[in-house]
Amino acid sequence: MDDKELESVIEGILFAMGDSVEPEKIAAAAEVSTEDVVRILDGLSAKYEAEGRGIRLTRLDGAYQMCTSPDIYEYLIRIAKQPKKAVLTETLLETLSIVAYKQPVTKAEIEKIRGVSSDHAVNKLVEYQLVEEVGRMDAPGRPMLFGTTEQFLRSFGVTSLEELPTLSPVVIEEFKHEAEEEAKITMEV
User: Fold this and answer.
1) Which residues of 125-149 are buried (b: 16+ CB within 10 A; e: fewer)?
2) Do 53 and 22 share a structural domain?
3) H/E/C letters for each residue in the chain?
4) Are residues 49 and 137 in the same domain?
5) Most buried residue among 48, 56, 64, 114 by CB atoms closer than 10 A?
6) Cβ proximity of 67 and 18 under 8 Å
7) Are strands 131-136 and 63-68 parallel, antiparallel or unpaired?
8) Residue 61 vs residues 30, 58, 64, 68, 181: alpha-carbon distances, Å
9) Do 184 and 98 share a structural domain?
10) Residue 10 and residue 49 in one domain
11) The domain spanning residue 19 has which CATH number?
12) Strand-pair partners of 133
């Protein structure tokens, strides 16, 4: 293996691993000597530094790790501070609608309605600031009660929960019928 190919292998390994990797492990994977790996690592480190690259190689207790150059930290901070776009999947929308219409509601009540664990969905909705803890139920274990937030109202263009659409009794009966049919199919399987 020539130096250019070994350099490529080492970069790929360090990038993919993310954590620090001992030169001996890289050497074993590439089937070359540890001395060759250390020579290439030192060369890469000097090259990244000299070219003012956005990445650096850091040596940690004899192992090497690819990391970000301190020169670009301010740009990383700007990116990290940008608001993340919340993606509401069908599961999140279903969970959010249960919270909106049944609040205050516990995770156990949400799970009873959905029929599946809702930990992840509720946690995501809290992360997106659409749902928040609004208190504790006066029951054994004092489970958390969840409700919607002002951010929920802003996101859905309503000024109060009273503006949420109401379901007609006919639609509610259709939903109940569909749920009963789904329950029958599940019981048969």
Assistant:
1) beebebbbeeeeeeeeeeebbbbbb
2) yes
3) CCHHHHHHHHHHHHHHHCCCECHHHHHHHHCCCHHHHHHHHHHHHHHHHHCCCCEEEEEECCEEEEEECHHHHHHHHHHHHCCCCCCCCHHHHHHHHHHHHHCCECHHHHHHHHCCCCHHHHHHHHHCCCEEEEEECCCCCCCEEEEECHHHHHHCCCCCHHHCCCCCHHHHHHHHHHHHHHHHHHHHC
4) no
5) 64
6) no
7) unpaired
8) 21, 10, 8, 18, 62
9) yes
10) yes
11) 1.10.10.10
12) 146
The token pair at 187 is 């019981």
pTM of the shown model: 0.50
Written as tens digits, the pLDDT of the chain (189 aa) is 899 999 999 999 999 998 899 999 999 999 999 999 999 999 999 999 999 999 999 988 889 999 999 999 999 888 888 776 778 899 999 999 999 999 999 999 999 888 888 999 999 999 999 999 999 988 888 999 999 999 999 888 888 888 888 877 777 677 677 767 766 665 565
84 lies in a domain? no
Question: Does 41 share its domain with 103?
Answer: no
CA angle 138, 164, 177 (to 5 degrees): 80
Structure tokens at 20: 């620090």
Q: Which two tokens stand for residue 139?
A: 């029951």
User: Is residue 81 a part of any domain in this protein?
Assistant: no
The token pair that represents 119 in the structure block: 């930990």
Q: How many domains does the chain have?
A: 2
